[in-house]
Amino acid sequence: MEILETLYREIVGFFSFSGLIEIIQTDNYKALLTQDGIGKALAPLIPVLLVIELIRAFFFQRLSFTQYKIAFFTYIFNRVISRFISIGMVGICIGLFEPYAIFKSEFTWYWFIYGYVVWEFAHFVYHYLGHKVRLFWCLHSTHHASESMNLSITYAHFFLEGPYADIIRTTICILMGVNPPLLFLIMFIDGTWGAFIHIGENLVKDARLGFLNHIILTPSHHRVHHARNPLYMDTNFCNLLNIWDKVFGTLQDEKHEEEIEYGITRPIKSGDFWDAYFGEIILLAKDVYHAPTLKDKVLYIFMPPGWHHSGEHKTASVVKKEYFATQKP
Fold first, then answer.
1. Which stretches are transmembrane (predicted)?
2. pLDDT in tens, 256-304
3. 263 conformational bin, left if phi > 0, alpha if psi -120 to 50, beta if neither
4. In the beta sheet, which residues pair with residue 262?
5. Which residues, in sequence order, are CB contacts of 313 under 8 Å at separation 6+?
6. What DSSP line would sit under 105-152, residue for residue?
């Protein structure tokens, strides 16, 4: 009986039904007019869409467990670890850095716009470093290891990536004057959209979303971000607003003639959770161990993935440069 109760709690927890159930049981529908109530109502959206995606894939005989295997085991593994490790990095950063904010914003529509632009910049910084610093890539690569795109990928993260991301994003936002209530609202909106943009071809074939593709970062843009094609590598680091990708020249639309190849550039055992979760960390440890000098050992940690002490680099920038050199003018 205890096992069944635990299973029930895990299922309800995964689908985030508890908040919505509470509103229905208490008949407190006025709560839906509040930020907390809206959050509880929308929380089951991504898990339910994931189930629909799975059903459609099964119905059209496109369902492959390998496509969802890494994300599934990553979610289970992180659930186990989270029972013993709970790091409130958002709260810590707010407490540490709020006294040093350059000014104090308020909960108004114009400060919301300001806050979202700042948040998107903070997200860009965290995400960019996740691709350009090898130590951070070791934390982020688990999210890119899948060779397909589907909603389960939103749950596929190395357990330390969240705290690392929150340190950067929260610190920048707080120092730039985004007050905590406004920050939490932005985080909710961005988190919901950040999950949705992983929607796969089994549910939405063309994810450009019409005219929205010219205004915001759509699931199509994020599919490009998850591609290992040289044209697509290290692009679309923002989450909803594309402003900073435009500023830094990393915005890339999906090309009809360039079919997306998902995954990371190194050979990976298809559907292997351990390789996806720990593979990059093991390879980094080996490179650091075999590096001939102390300087090289340090550089392996902080230089981009693909950097090599011999000078024969295979970083994304080198691969992209070689690719463009072969294209016809």
1. 41-59, 80-103, 109-129
2. 899 999 999 998 887 788 999 999 999 999 999 999 999 999 999 999 9
3. left
4. 227
5. 306, 307
6. --SSHHHHHHHHHHHHHHHHHHHHHHHHSHHHHHHHHHHH--SS--GG
The closest alpha carbon to 6, from 83, 78, 68, belongs to 83
Q: For the whole model, what pTM was predicted?
A: 0.80
Give me the residue label for tokens 């209530």.
Answer: 181
Q: How many Å is the Cα radius of gyration of the chain?
A: 21
Q: What would the two tokens of residue 297 be?
A: 């050992």
Q: In this structure, what token pair is assigned to residue 166? A: 């929150």
Helix (H, G, I), strand (E, B) or coil at 75: helix
Residue 296 burial (C-beta neighbours within 10 Å; 0-12, 13-18, 19+): middle
Instruction: Residue 203: name the closest of 51, 42, 71, 17 by CA.
Output: 51
pLDDT tens per residue across span 188-199 = 999 899 999 999
Of the candidates 220, 188, 186, the one whose C-alpha atom is nearest the C-alpha of residue 204 is 220
Q: Encoding tokens for residue 316?
A: 């994304």
